[in-house]
Design a protein that fits this description.
Blueprint: E1 5-6, H1 9-18, E2 26-30, H2 38-41, E3 47-52, H3 55-64, E4 71-75, E5 92-97, H4 103-110, E6 117-125, H5 126-133, H6 143-149, E7 152-160, E8 165-166, E9 173-180, H7 191-203, H8 209-212, H9 220-227, H10 240-250, E10 265-269, E11 275-280, H11 281-286, E12 291-299, E13 305-310, E14 321-322, E15 325-328, H12 335-347, E16 357-362, E17 371-379, E18 392-398, H13 400-409, H14 416-427
Parallel strand pairs: 2-3, 2-5, 3-4, 5-6, 12-17
Antiparallel strand pairs: 1-8, 6-9, 7-9, 10-11, 12-15, 13-14, 13-18, 16-17
Helix pairs in contact: 7-10
The chain binds S-adenosylmethionine.
S-adenosylmethionine (SAM) binds near residues 31 and 54.
């Protein structure tokens, strides 16, 4: 289990300080072991969660901290643990002197989009830290670098020599810190297509990209001139921004940096939801005119609810969590037709156990943004979604009980329209699936 325990008190104390946890933060330590760093973390945040795979160490930690209600010990594999319950704690401060064997896997997993992490500080082999923080055109620059740096700002903080541990490891260690990259630094891109292209590109890093990327929807010379790279380029010659641009140009999904248009036309309705005219989107919102929208909760076959994280480009509620799909009715469109269209356009979902069912209606008012909202649920037969990156940053299915708990702990993480719909669905006299949580 990679149990090289830290003996250098100075390094342990430095790590706890460098995490920069405030009194309102929830801190997670991965692989606390004998507690070398843990003792410097106690009392720093409002809660400290220790994730330890070794049953004996976890039991010892539990005994040691039994009297402290702010400390929770989870006996779990940090490479496999369900991360969804962590979202309700807000952006986490995560720290770990990671086991060498699975350190990279654990790091990649906790930093996968969407991630509950706000700042991570990991001790790993120096060689892995070099890969995480590498720049283009060098041997350390690879798949791990590009995938992490597209979403995180990585900085190497300090080296730690083998003498600092018992038993002494064979390799040098180092500490790397990772913070979410400002979403405005790079244009939006489809994360799964990006992952596929980067994996493919670096799978044979000595070969020229044109020979490893296979068939692309855009001719290779055109791509190269748009990216400003030679046609002979290899994977390591493309910067992270160029990998993102390559992905954008190969994305068959309609992609723009303006997720909504002010010129869209909506039906305007009266107090009784009867159409009384049409108006431009910008006008409808500026003048608080009543109009129509749907929200859809797409359920997985296990009864979990898919939530979407809105793109940071949206003009309302950017970056917040929202219903699986939601949107305004087009002129002349019915609520049912709109629900089907939004499921297709936003999530790429076309296969359902049965068509969407209307489960509630909300009257237009200030709390709904002057929208009459019809809420639908649908059970999707597949959880494979495909969404436009300009509109949606991520989609993830959560157990119903987990969303309930998250809403209580951090209502500010959710779009107000979703909160109204959820409240109605959970408390209203409507059939709903058994709680999957
Ligand atoms: N944090 C302690 C220290 O600095 O002395 C221990 C660090 S030691 C390098 C790695 C720790 O991670 C050990 O306690 C080990 O039992 C634990 N561990 C190993 N694999 C793990 C996994 N998959 N999930 C969680 N903990 C793991």
């Amino acid at each position: 289990m990679g149990q090289n325990f830290l003996q250098d008190e100075g390094v342990a104390c430095w790590m706890a300080e460098a995490l920069e946890a405030g009194p309102d933060d929830v801190i997670v330590e991965i692989g606390p072991g004998l507690g070398a760093v843990t003792r410097h973390l106690v009392g720093r945040g409002r809660k400290l969660i220790l994730v330890e795979k070794d049953a004996r160490l976890a039991a010892a930690l539990r005994d040691q901290h039994a009297g402290d209600p702010t400390i929770e010990v989870l006996e779990a594999d940090a490479a496999e643990i369900d991360l969804r319950p962590f979202f309700k704690f807000g952006p986490l401060k995560v720290l770990g002197n990671l086991p060498y064997s699975v350190g990279t896997t654990i790091m990649a997993r906790w930093l996968e989009t969407p991630s509950p992490v706000g700042h991570a500080l990991f001790m790993l082999q120096k060689e892995v830290c070099d890969r995480v923080t590498a720049g283009p055109r060098c041997g350390d620059y690879g798949q791990l670098t590009v995938r992490l740096q597209a979403r995180w700002t990585a900085r190497q903080r300090r080296d730690v020599p083998p003498d600092s541990f018992h038993p002494r490891p064979a390799v040098q260690s180092a500490i790397v810190s990772l913070r979410p990259r400002d979403r405005h630094e790079l244009p939006v891109f489809d994360e799964s297509l990006f992952g596929r292209l980067v994996r493919l590109g670096f799978s044979q890093r000595r070969k020229q990209l044109k020979n490893v990327l296979g068939d692309l929807p855009v001719p290779w010379p055109d791509l190269c001139s748009a990216l400003g790279v030679p046609e002979t380029a290899r994977a390591e010659e493309l910067s992270v921004a160029q990998w993102v641009e390559l992905t954008r140009r190969c994305d068959p999904h309609p992609l723009s940096d303006h997720p909504q248009s002010d010129d869209e036309l909506f039906d305007v309705v009266d107090d009784h939801d009867r159409v009384i005219g049409q108006e431009r989107r910008a006008e409808v919102h500026a003048r608080a005119l009543k109009h129509r929208a749907v929200h859809v909760f797409a359920l997985t076959p296990r009864g979990e609810v898919m939530l979407q994280k809105r793109s940071h480009l949206k003009d309302s509620c950017p970056g917040l969590w929202d219903s699986s799909a939601a949107g305004h009715l087009d002129v002349g469109e019915s609520y049912d037709a709109c629900a089907l269209r939004e499921l297709d356009e936003e999530l790429g979902l076309r296969k359902y156990a049965a068509p969407p069912v209307r489960v509630a209606g909300l009257t237009a008012g200030p709390d709904t943004g002057w929208e009459f909202v019809e809420l639908f649920t649908v059970t999707a037969t597949s959880t494979r979604t495909r969404f436009p990156a300009a509109e949606i940053e991520a989609v993830l299915a959560f157990p119903v009980a987990e969303i309930d708990a998250w809403l209580v702990a951090r209502p500010q993480d959710f779009a107000p329209g979703f909160r109204r719909c959820w409240e109605t669905w959970r408390t209203g006299p409507v059939a709903r699936p058994e709680d999957a949580g």
